[in-house]
Structure formats: C-alpha cells, structure tokens
Design brief:
By secondary structure, this protein is mainly alpha-helical. The protein has one domain: MFS general substrate transporter like domains (Growth Hormone, Chain: A), CATH 1.20.1250. Helix content is 74%, strand content 3%. It contains 14 helices and two strands, in the order ααααααααααααααββ. A hairpin with a 2-residue loop joins β1 and β2. The radius of gyration is 21 Å and the shape is globular. The two termini are 43 Å apart.
Length: 442
Amino acid sequence: MSAPPRTAAPSPATEPLPVMAERPPWRHTFIALSVPNFRIWTAGNVVAMTAGWMQRIAQDWLVLELTGSATAVGITVALQFAPMLFFGLLGGVIVDRFSKRALMIATQSTFAVLSLGLAALTLAGAVEAWHVFAIAFATGLVTVIDNPARQVIVSELVGHRHLRNAISVNSSVFQLGGMIGPAISGVLLLAVGAGWAFVVNGVACALVVVMLSMLRTAEMTRTVPAARSRGQLRAGLAYAAAKPTILVPVVLVASYAVFGLTMPVLLASFAADVYDVGAGGYGLFNSMIAVGALTGALLSTRRATIRLRTIVLGLLATGTLQAVAGSMPTVGAFAVTLVAVGLASLLFLTAANQLVQLSSNIAIRGRVMSLYVLVLLGGQAIGGPVMGVVVESVGTHAAMVLSGGVPAVVAAITALVLARRGQLTLQMRVRRHVPVVEIAHR
C-alpha cells in the first residue's frame, strides 16, 4: 500500500465568535463607531468611497465618449476586475502573511499615483481608450491585495463582538459614497469633464494613507501573521468548500456578480441609447441605486441573525426586482425601480459578507475573504464584456431582464438543492387567505 500524498496542515476549526446575537437597541445602531480606530477608519472611508464612485462613473463615461461602444465599457470593467479573477486567491495568502495596515498603505499610495496619472492624461487632452484600459488593469492588480486586506482589517479594528455591525456600517459608507459620488461626478462631467473626478480620487487615496497612519495600533486586535508553508492556498479552498455557510454564499454571489453586477454597462446604455439622458442621467441612475442600497445598509444594522435562508431569499428578491426594472417603459418608473434593486442587492450582499466572515476562523480569514472577493469582482470581469455583447445583440431592456433573471433562477435551484440535503425545507403557509411558499430551516 503506497504512502498517502503529502498534504498541508489542517486548517484551524472555526471557534464560536462572541458576536451580538440579539437585535440591538436603536441607540446602538452604529455601535461599532464607539471604537476610536473604527471612527478614524470610517471618516477616511466616507471621503474615499465618494471619490472612488466619482472615478468609476467618470471612467466608464469617458470610455463611452471615446469609443461610442457599450462593449468597450464592458472591457474596461473586465480589465479592472480580471486580475482578481486570476490572482485573487494569491492575494488572500499575502494578506494572511503580512500586516493589513501596512499592505493598505502601499495599495492606497499606488491607487493615488494611478488616479493622478489618468487625470493628467485626461486634462492634457491626450487620453485614449487604451490608456484607460491600461490604468484600469493596473488598478485591478492592486485591488488583488487591497480588497481582502480591507475586508479583514475591519475585524482587527473592532474585534469580533461588533464585527457584524461594522460590516453594515462599512456598507452604509460605501453606499453613501455611491449616492453622493455619481451625482458629483455627473456635475463634473457636464461642467469640466472627467479629468477632475480622477484628481479628486487621487487626493482621496492619499488621505486614506494619512488615516491609516493615524490608527492606534496598540488598540487593534492584531492577527498573528500566518507562517509561510506549503499548501496554504489549497487549505483555504478546502476549508471554504467544507462549510455550507461559506460555500453557498460564495456560489450565489458569483452568479450575481457575473450577471447582476453589470450595472456600469447596462446603465450607460440606458442613459445613452434608451432614454437619451446623457452623463447627468447616468449619474442619476447610479445615485438611485445607491439611495436604495444606503437604505438597505442601514436596515442591515438591525439584523439579529443571518442564516442560509437569508442569503437565498435575498438573491431571489434581488434578481426578480432587477428583471422587473428591465421591463419598465418610462425613465421615471425605471429610476424608481432602481431604488428597490439597490435596497435588495445591498441586503443580500451584506448578509453574504457577514455570514462568510463570521463562519471563518481569523487565522484563515484572509484566504476565505479573497475567495469571496474573487467571485464578487472576478465575476464582474466575466460579466462586463458578456453583458456588453448581450446589450448590443438583444437590446438593453432584454439584457437587464436577463441580468436579474439568471441569478433569481440560481437562487431557486440552490433552495431546492439545500432542501434535498435537509438543510432547508419549503413550507406552504396561508397568510390572509393567500398561500405563500416559505424557506425554513429544519
């Protein structure tokens, strides 16, 4: 009998985490902000997220102006997220080995240089589509390390007890930026062009570096860096695959990322080709999604528990609403429906993020979160150009219906699979004389 193959040391088991398990009183809706380090982090994030959204909108619109092609916008999205698809898991290994704060200082400094470089090209009138493509790709390479580090550092700032609330606050800040940033970017695009949006983002990234240097490291719940050893990446994947509370959210997020999170392509096409509302309308559409998402982020701070059922129903609702948005006949109805899409999407994504983080041991969380970020961002790298082609092939309305319909079907299939495995059951209840199908735990 041959000797068994050499394998990596087993991953640490997830220990019970001291998180709040009850719905917090209203005065504790933002309890994570009682931690000084998290207040500093959040203040910097408000500026950074707003500026990041400004750059995202300006970049996509600039490509549309330079090329006149929705497919080119999709290529830009793909180039920015493709590095995460190919190197994301390696980024998680790096995050587990080194100081998250030091890594983020390096990544944010690089982001500042890239944004200011794109600003210089644009303001000088020398920018071409390939410049934007190249800088988008370079930004994606840096994101391979920055994003998982950003996910994991939150637990070092607040500890485990308030981690769930901190994730919701982070989502609120991201969506607040998503509400303000596109509106400001739309004004700048109309008034002075895309270049100044890139300047603002470069300065904001520099401010984040300053914010990181202000953190009180003695008060952080620092994670002991993982020692370098063979098989760490494989161990992380095996750990995630063995836990339904990690694997199922990752699969559902992947389906939504490929189809549902292709809004830059879809909304640019709706603004330019369907409703003819230009850059200002494009910024407005993104702001409407962000209004709903901010509402969803605030509601997520009130959650007492998160289960697989929460994730499955969340994607089913999100996909259905997005498909409905694609059938709206007027710009007003479309914009209003986008608010509902943003709310449902944020509740789903926040719940998935929280369940994955709270299900993973801190010693391996960098690798687990890199898998989550890989499917979230890498899926958009695949979906961006695919949806660009779909838009030009079958039309914008049909593409939007498809972008929501596919994830909704995946959610329904997942519910059936989990039911067959005994992890969920489908129940029929009658409410006010109306039969309602519910998903429940056995």
